[in-house]
Amino acid sequence: MRERAAAVLEANWTGTSTVPSRTLYPHQWSWDSAFIAVGLRHVSPLRAQLELETLLAAQWGDGRVPHIVFNSSVPCDAYFPGPDFWRSTTAGRAAGAPRTVQTSGIVQPPVHALAAWLVHGADPALSRSRSFLSRVYPRLAAWHRYLLHRRDLGGGGLAAVVHPWEQGMDNSPCWDAPLSRIAPAPASAFRRADLDHGAPDDRPTHLDYGRYVRLATDYRDALYEDQADVPNGFAVEDPSFNALLITSEHALARIAVELGAPTTARHARAERLTAALVERLWDPATGMFFCRDLRAPTPEETGALIPEYGVTGLIPLILPTLPRHVTTALLSTARSPRFGLGTPTVRLVPSHDLTGPSFDPHRYWRGPAWFNTNWLVERGLRLHGERAEADRLRTAMLDTALDTDFAEYVDPYTLHGRGARDFSWSAALSLDLLHART
């Protein structure tokens, strides 16, 4: 397992970063690189540091970390939307987009500070000799400031996403209601390179993709300006995005201790964010965290919770100071027929409600199980003392990764691999599970 996982990361290494997949995703992706660094630290702490340094070198002046950093040696038509669509060096100029590298203009979940702290711990002597933490800390702090200030579009203290791609779970049913208000871009306006490498039944529909393109086009044409009031647009407060931000705030506090910087404000901020997450996104009647729609067309609907049971609502289990009554209820939801945690028929946690009308075991984030979300759930279970359940989930993840050649995602019932094979974060997180639990 170690040899095969390491071989995947070696094959996907470009010299400065790791592509998620040589075929489907030939550039550097933001949260992919964070998860990859977590596993890569067990193979090469130096490469893990370079992974994060390469990503953060493409940070914009306003603090955002773009969700894609484009490799100039890859043909423009190898992936859509490519650099000629995003036009970061021109449309992003006012927001401080870098001039020497092309990027997208949207972001992805902020798991980077957690990754940086774990990478440092793999070889502290190397990290200190290269001043790794002292160089990435200001960039990570600026990244968090951007999210906490520019993206607090709901005014409640949480960061909002302005595109489904930003949350990472691209076509989750959690986005169906807010996306339904978006007029799709015409099919003639784009060509989907993803269908050259993935089965259409596994990928987002043409209608959804047209809406993604429309949202990205409008954001680009607004020069990537984050606006607090865009009627009928897309702005959603998401549980997992904010839970990862809180977890990374805790990691930044640990980094600050290492660097001899003040930590009180960071700990206090993490606690405030946890309280805001519970206040704004927790539904005690259902025992679940839901997304909040900030752009619904009527005053009665604006700010309403979206009652879709996505795995995003389970990710707050990673938070160390989640109130006990919330943790207990959330664990009950995870074990319910909606997600089947711990049951013999569902060994990996699906991306969406198994009992819901939108569930599809094959189509991207509408049902399949993913290794990164299961890694986060496993981490949350262990954090809250559910060791036996965490061990079972760890074993299922490792067995499935090996059996599917590190598939991108799997059918939660059959565990058959779907999407790309030799997927980098599947290999990297398998390495982390092997190392951390043996």
Description:
It is a single chain. With 438 residues, the protein is mainly alpha-helical. The chain has one domain: Glycosyltransferase (Alpha/alpha barrel). It is 45% helix and 5% strand. It has helices at 2-11, 30-40, 45-56, 83-86, 88-91, 112-122, 124-129, 132-150, 164-167, 176-179, 206-221, 239-259, 264-281, 324-335, 371-383, 387-403, 424-437, and strands at residues 28-29, 68-69, 160-161, 236-237, 282-283, 288-289, 291-293, 305-306, 369-370, 409-410, 417-418. Strands 3-4-7-8 form a 4-stranded antiparallel sheet. A 3-stranded antiparallel sheet has the order 9-10-11. It is globular and about 50 Å long. The model has no long low-confidence stretch (mean pLDDT 94). This is Mannosylglycerate hydrolase MGH1-like glycoside hydrolase domain-containing protein.
Topology overview:
Elements: H1 2-11, E1 28-29, H2 30-40, H3 45-56, E2 68-69, H4 83-86, H5 88-91, H6 112-122, H7 124-129, H8 132-150, E3 160-161, H9 164-167, H10 176-179, H11 206-221, E4 236-237, H12 239-259, H13 264-281, E5 282-283, E6 288-289, E7 291-293, E8 305-306, H14 324-335, E9 369-370, H15 371-383, H16 387-403, E10 409-410, E11 417-418, H17 424-437
Helix pairs in contact: 1-17, 2-3, 2-6, 2-17, 3-6, 3-8, 6-8, 6-12, 8-12, 12-13, 15-16, 16-17
Pfam families: MGH1-like_GH
Protein name: Mannosylglycerate hydrolase MGH1-like glycoside hydrolase domain-containing protein
Domain Mannosylglycerate hydrolase MGH1-like glycoside hydrolase: 25-426
